[in-house]
């Protein structure tokens, strides 16, 4: 509360009133459940309703090459999807922020947003109709004489990547636009005036300036991709081998909560590590980056 | 490069091609979904067999259950709306309280608290879901064992779905509302106090109207985020499925074009919501907060 | 006279219906300091950006260092620019900023370093190469921006109101520094500003611009003492404007009578004829008029006028008194003498004043009598 002549107890009461819901929210829904999850992941069932502290759940993960493989694969695919999203989003962000002026820019921006107002389920349904063997694109390929028979375009790694990139675009485009818009055009003109070409300007002016936006976009996209469940399972089918699927299977299908909790923590650890690495790499602070998105 | 610098023809041409291809990529799935909602065929796939409204109005007698006759789907839309309404209400209330706490409050540990508030955004939704599921179940078990209480709302079901979605939507509402509160010109408040207004009156007549766009915007975002949530919901859902989970289940089984009809309905509804928001605020709407 | 470094030949630029630059021609001598002075929206920024190459003219040609610039990209022109907000690269050190252009020319790292440090030395920033841009003061950033361009030894240096962002005191200081820098380097400077004091202090020649055209092009003294148009008389320096009709003429000396019957005399030396009965505008500078409590105190031979003190505007050496002329009730501003005489004037006091008609100027009235009482 701003300083004023209001009595001290009044200010304290107001502070408490505002603090209580925040603490309740973070304490009961974020901190306590995660602590509980940690405890859960560090125990082992030794008999009916009998548990003992143990690292068995983590040992299983490292011992079983299947889990290990799926984990690395998920991380790797997420990195690739993030980079592809950046490559695809950067030019469009540039067009919106720098080339299209006035109403055209706003309009293009709104047009780019529209698909993201509908849920991921709907968008994925669209991709399935487009790509499945009896779908639109395989039919088109046959009609154009490129393939003799309709080919199955679903259930490939590339399909999963297309779906992930599509779903993530918005979260890359928005921070990129805001960081590019804040770049003063006269810096680009000055660099050009001093003899720099397009590539040099990009490397020495644009990218250093947009680095916070790029980092923010990459962190959010990576995290969302890593934690995605819908797109890999629907577009990848049985071949998806996504780590969130393992968590779901342990928790909901096999009811092995201890193992699922350990998997959850491994995923959380990976996501946190990548976020930290991204921040360290570009020398930024978490709070600043998150506020950009 | 920027318009004031010379851009060779090939660059202009390839930029235009790029923007065109990008838009096709963005809208192709949505267009396909829309078109096959009207195809007179049992599956949403080519070829085109003629126009029909069966997937909206069909009933059991035609062996095609259209959206408006499909009690299960309609029920799940209702469930989603109910959940979203609760999530929106809770998120906007706590978002407003948090905004004042972060922008006006002074207390030890504020920095840490504000960083902690961002945490739900970097925790994958699946993990938010399982942690809340496990925690709630353990409390329920404990209450059952120790006191013989049956705390049903802590078992998988809509109350948990609401809590799970709220746990991260609240962060987004907080960010949106505090961003606006931060830009508030404090002298307006001082002027009102100076003119004899009480604190409560200042809040009601100056601050709330000022925050209104952010409140409306964050309500819309919260509602949409809740409606579209899948990851967290999947882990916490009980007998009543919200729409996304229902659709997911049917898509795995091989869906009829009824799903296209639902999707079209969703597109139109969220399109209308977006349009009203853009009308109200001619600035660029902030989407992800 | 050497070949001009910059020649503009009938340059035109339109934005839709609006003509930003209207068939403008001029030449700038090698090594001189040329200013373009005008109010905002007069087209001066458009003109500068056309010289730099960021905007292409619709018609006409611009030649720099003797060569036509038609179709020459901005980075191929022997021209560098100091931007309005300076546009120093915040992601680089001071030294890297200055060496940026040299690096683009493929000059080796050691040589780049030597030249940029020598340049920083010359602008009085020796040893600042490793600093970050935001560690510098406003004046130092200014010098870095100039050094960054001059290190490339351009034929022409363009400056887009670079002092606009500075506070008043620093601006006065930077004015002197800019003039000294230009004299030391001998590079041709083209400077645009809306501040007439900057243009007068800095320039060898000034073009006064309005609505896409030059109203007058000349030395600062020309503009001040021999304005060719009412716009220049009103825009450059302070001036009292008197609107009326010519009621008599004697060679160049015109008798001006206002609608309410106040009569003054002024000289007509600009273009356009004035016949008796024509509407005219006359301008009398505040420092040209003298005050007196009696006719005896006024300089001999000058026709006396009477007025009433409205207020005394004390501003050190620029102090003045604001009068209301008795007959026309018009405001008239007169500089107070440096001797401190008349500093005891009180509002409502009646006072006499006079001025030398040879130092007052008279023009045919402008078609659109836009009130530009500066």
List keywords for this structure.
heterotrimer, B: 289 residues, mainly alpha, MetI-like fold, 71% helix, C: 374 residues, alpha+beta, Rossmann fold, OB fold (Dihydrolipoamide Acetyltransferase, E2P), 2 domains, six-stranded mixed beta sheet, five-stranded antiparallel beta sheet, 8 helices, disordered C terminus
CATH superfamily membership of chain A, which one?
MetI-like
CATH class of chain B: Mainly Alpha
Mean pLDDT of chain B: 87
Shape of chain B: globular
Classified in CATH, the superfamily of chain B is: MetI-like
CATH topology of chain B: MetI-like fold
DSSP strand tally of chain B: 0
Biggest sheet strand line-up of chain A: 1-2
Provide the β-strand percentage band of chain A. Answer: under 5%
> What is the CA-atom radius of gyration of chain B, in angstroms?
24 Å
Number of domains as seen in the coordinates of chain B: 1
**Which class of secondary structure composition applies to the elements of chain A?**
mainly alpha
Largest sheet of chain B: none
**Structure class of chain B:** mainly alpha
Folded structure, characterized:
- The complex is a heterotrimer of chains A (293), B (289) and C (374).
- With 293 residues, chain A is mainly alpha-helical.
- Chain A has helices at residues 8-41, 56-63, 65-99, 103-113, 120-131, 136-143, 157-181, 185-193, 198-226, 230-236, 243-253, 257-282, 286-292; strands at residues 43-47, 50-53.
- Chain A has one domain (57-292): MetI-like fold.
- Chain A is globular.
- The model of chain A is unreliable at 1-5 (pLDDT under 50).
- By secondary structure, chain B is mostly helical.
- Chain B has a single domain, classed as MetI-like (MetI-like fold, Orthogonal Bundle).
- In chain B, 71% of the residues lie in helices and 0% in strands.
- Chain B has helices spanning 9-35, 54-57, 71-104, 110-122, 125-147, 158-182, 186-194, 199-228, 231-236, 243-253, 258-280.
- Chain C is 22% helix and 33% strand.
- Chain C has eight helices and 20 strands.
- Chain C has helices spanning 44-52, 94-104, 109-122, 138-150, 168-185, 196-202, 220-225, 230-235, and strands spanning 4-15, 18-29, 33-37, 59-64, 67-68, 79-82, 156-160, 188-193, 205-210, 213-218, 240-250, 253-257, 263-267, 279-284, 289-292, 305-313, 320-325, 331-335, 350-355, 361-364.
- Mean pLDDT of chain C is 90; it is low at 369-374.
- The A-C interface holds A 184, 186-187, 189-197, 200, 204-205, 208-209 and C 52, 54, 74-75, 79-81, 83-85, 87, 89-92, 100-101, 104-105, 148-149, 152.
